[in-house]
Structure formats: structure tokens, C-alpha cells
Amino acid sequence: MKGNRLFSRRFGYMLIFPSAIVFLIVSIYPLLTGIMLSFQNSSLYKGDEKKFVGLKNIITILTSDAEFRSDLLFTVIYTIGIVVIAYITGLVFSLLLNTDVPCRTLFRVLILIPWVISPAVSSMSWSWLLSDQYGFFNNFLKSIGVIDKSILFLADKTLAKIMVIIIGAWRNFPFMTVVLLAGLQGISKDYYEAANIDGANAWQRFCYVTLPQLKNVSVVTLTLVTIWTFNNFDNIYMLTKGGPAQSTEVLPILTYNNAFFRGNISYASAMATIMLIIMLLVSWVYFKASKYNKE
Predict the structure, then answer these.
(1) pTM for the predicted model, two decimal places
(2) How far is it, in rounded angstroms, from Cα 180 to Cα 266?
(3) Taking phi first (over 0 means left), then psi (-120 to 50 degrees means alpha), and beta for anything else, what does residue 245 get?
(4) Which pLDDT does position 21 carry in this prediction?
(5) Which is nearest to 267 in space by CA: 38, 46, 82?
(6) Per-residue model confidence (pLDDT) at position 249
(7) Does residue 212 have a cis peptide bond before it, meaning omega lies within 30 degrees of 0?
(8) What is the pLDDT of residue 54?
(9) Cα separation of 97 and 80, whole Å?
(10) Alpha carbon of 178 to those of 57, 78, 87, 235: distances in Å?
(11) What distance in Å separates the CA atoms of residue 148 and residue 142, rounded to the nearest whole number?
């Protein structure tokens, strides 16, 4: 019996061994290599020998890189904007889909389209819709007489910032909706019956029953979307490439530009390391919040 259990355990290890090797190659090795490069002075275009410079790159970024600070500020604004809008929108739609609305199943399928559609396809579609020359929105507003001149949705600094946040929220709110809907369906009806007996109205039931019961689900979804958005590259790069005049440039794009356009691999790796530390801090806050909720 003991021999069978030992064989079963070894057989299980053998099954996961290939996947573990692939995971180490495609995830752990690049991560460790990137961290090591952040302590060197490696360049993509120069053939100089790699030298260990310690924390020089990280200190330079944090103390004297104005571009990094500017992009960090917009990255934080961009992340918070998307997370807040996506959460509120997802909560509203989940509440609606949790009721007996007509064609509820159809709406649940349709609401997933922004989430499942390819980022490249959605970005190209939005670029067409927002184009100042042939875009649908500009042509429609002109046809009904609202505007005479095209609105530069992606060419104006302020409008471009607003649009990339709105589009990012549009792409993330289906995930919020699905997860929050699952949380709503897990709330016992007994809580609502007790609230009705106590004379609570719809708003009071939402504030004192629904939201507290969604606390754990909300913490998980908010943390995940925060991490995904903070590290997101494709949304802004495909829409504006960080323009106009770097007004929508976020840290992933700045890191990419430093690595492959400016050739400073070590400096870009140091930026990625700082981003990793920020995300670890966010994860730490999440685990602390989860532990507090359980207590």
C-alpha cells in the first residue's frame, strides 16, 4: 500500500515535470535575468563588457529621471481611472443581470465581447471609430450638426488621456461584471428577507447587505485588474504609442522604448524591477486586506 502511494506520488511529479520546466524557461529565467541586468550597464547597441554597477540604475531612475516620474504619475492615474470605472460599471451590470430581465442569457454573452475580443482588433476598431478624418463618431456628430470641426480624440493631449482610460475600462468591465455577478448569486436570500422584515429600502439593502457580502470578491477583482492594468502595454501602444508628445506614455511603454529604441537594456530592466516591486507591494496590501476580512 505504501509502495503504491509512493509510486503514485512519483508518477504525479513526472507528469508535472515537463510543465514545470517550460514554466521555468519562459517565466522564471527571464525574470531573474531582467533583475540581474538592472544591476549592470548592458547596452543593446554597444559591445562593451557588462559591468556590475549595483543600485546605480535604480537610484538614477528614482532621483533624477523626470520622464519616469511623469510616466509613473500617469500610470497611476490611468490604473486608478480604469479600475474605478470598470468596477462601478461592472457592479451596475451585475446587479441588472442578477434580476429577471428579459433575454438575460443573451445579455450575459454580449457583455463578454470586450473581454474576449483580441486586443489588436479592439484597438484598431477604436482607432477607426475615433479617427478625426474618417471616424464614425466625428462623422456622426457632424451629420446631426453637433460639431463643425473634427474632434481630435487621440491627437489632443487631454482627450487622448481620457479616451485611453475609457477604452481600458471598456475592456476590463466584463471581467468585473462576471466575477461580481458570481458573488451576487452566492449571497443568501435570507439576508434580504431579514432586511425586508426590518423595513430596509432598496438603497439600504444595497449598502448594508450587498456591498458587505461582496467585500472579498471585490478585493480580489480590484487587485487583479490593478495589476493587469498597471502592467498593460498593448492598449495604449496600439492606440497612441504613448503620444501625442508622450502624454499617454505609461511605464511599460517607457521601459520598452528604453530597451529597444534607446538600446539601454540595463536601464529598462531597472525600470521593470521597480515596477515589480510596486506590484509586490500591491499584492502585499491585497493579502493583508484578505487576512483582515477573514478575521
Answers:
(1) 0.86
(2) 41
(3) left
(4) 84
(5) 38
(6) 93
(7) no
(8) 84
(9) 25
(10) 42, 23, 11, 21
(11) 6
Q: Which residues of the chain have pLDDT under 70?
A: 1-8, 46-49, 289-295
C-alpha cell at 228: 493587469
* The three three-digit cell numbers of residue 249, written as one number: 506614455
Alpha carbon of 142 to those of 138, 151, 158: distances in Å? Answer: 6, 10, 21
52, β-bridge pairs: 40
φ/ψ of 145, rounded to 5, equals 80, 15
- Three-state SS for the chain is CHHHHHHHHHHHHHHHHHHHHHHHHHHHHHHHHHHHHCCECCCCCCCCCCCECCCHHHHHHHHHCHHHHHHHHHHHHHHHHHHHHHHHHHHHHHHHHCCCCCCHHHHHHHCCHHHHCCHHHHHHHHHHHHCCCCCHHHHHHHHCCCCCCCCCCCCCHHHHHHHHHHHHHHHHHHHHHHHHHHHHHCCCHHHHHHHHHCCCCHHHHHHHHHHHHCHHHHHHHHHHHHHHHHCCCHHHHHHCCCCCCCCCCCHHHHHHHHHHCCCCHHHHHHHHHHHHHHHHHHHHHHHHHHHHHHC
Q: Pick from 137, 147, 133: which is nearest to 167 by CA? A: 137
Report the distance separating Cα 226 and Cα 220, nearest Å: 10
Residue among 167, 150, 134 nearest 239 (CA):
167
Burial of residue 5 (number of CB atoms within 10 Å: 0-12, 13-18, 19+): exposed
Q: How far is CA 60 from CA 143, 250, 267, in A?
A: 52, 18, 9
256-273 burial, b for 16+ CB within 10 Å, e for fewer? bbbbeeeebbbbbbbbbb
Query: What are the φ and ψ backbone dihedral angles of 34, each rounded to 5 degrees?
Result: -60, -40
